[in-house]
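Table S2 (continued). Query chain:
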Amino acid sequence: MKNVRRGLGKGLGTGYKNLAPMDSHIHSLSAKGISTKYNVKAVAINTETGKMIGKPRWEKINTKTNSIFKNAKNKEDVKNTYEAFWGLDPYSKEKVEVLEVKTLNAKGKTGRCIHCGMKFTAEDYKKASQGVVGDDCLVGDYDNICYPCQEKYGTKEAREKSHLDAKGKKNLYLISKAKIEKDIDKFPMFFAFSKEQLEEGLKKLKTTRKDIVSIGGGGFIKKVDTDKFKEMFKRHDKEHNEMMKNPDYVYQMFRYELSNHEYCITYDYEDTLSSLNLTMGQVNKNPLLKKQLEKATKDYMKNVGDC
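Corresponding output:
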C-alpha cells in the first residue's frame, strides 16, 4: 500500500489520519544531506579565572523545532546563537563556550522508533522523503518515531506545543520554559556578528551605537533597559526556585531533561543535572530532588525517548 503524505490531514489521503503534511519536506532535507539537527559540545567557563566549570557536555539542537535557532543555517550560525543565548546574562560569572558542532541527519543514516524500537533503514528515510507512507514506509512525521506509535503517543513536538507531558498532563516545566522564552523574545534586544547586522539591530531598536550596551555573546540592549534586563533574570530565578518546591514540577523537569540529554544511551546523569545547574551531591542531599529523579528515571526508561 502506498499513499502520498501531502494529502494526509486534509481528508485527501488514506491509512493513518489527521497527520500534519509537513513531514515530507523535513525528511527530504535529511535525505539530501541538508542538516536540520546538530550536536553541540559546550562547556561553562569562569569569566574571572578562565577555567572550565565541570566537564564539556553534548546537547542536541533542532533548528526546525527550536525557535531560538530558527535563523541558524549552518554550524557556525548554531555556534554563535548557542553562545549568544547562554551569554544573555551580563552579570553572570560564567560564560558558555562551544567546543564543537556536529551535523546530524546525514545522507544514508539509519535510526529507530523511540517507543517500540522499530528500525529504520536509509531506504526507509529515502521513501519518506518521496512521500511514501503505509506498509511500505512506516517512518512517522519525524525521523525517530513510527506512524503507529505516533498515533498512540503523539509527537514530542506536538505535546511540547501544548505543554503536555507523556501522560497528557499539563507540564509545569514546559510552561515555565515557554514563559521564559517568551519574555526573552519580547525583550528589546538584538544579536549582531557583523557591521551589517549591527546596523539592522540599531534600526530595529530605533537607537544609536552610543545608546546600546553589550550583554555578551553578540547581544545588545539599550542602556536605559539595563535594570529591566537584570530584573527579568532575577524574576526567572525566583520563579524557578519557588517551583522547585513542587514535586510535579521537579518530576517533569527531570523527565524532560533525561530525554533531552539521552540518558538511555549514556546512563550518566551528568549532562542532565549540568543543564539544570545541579550536581549529584545536591540531589542526594535533597529528599524531594532525589525521590523525583529516581521516579522520573524509572518512568523514562519504560518508554525510552519519551518525556
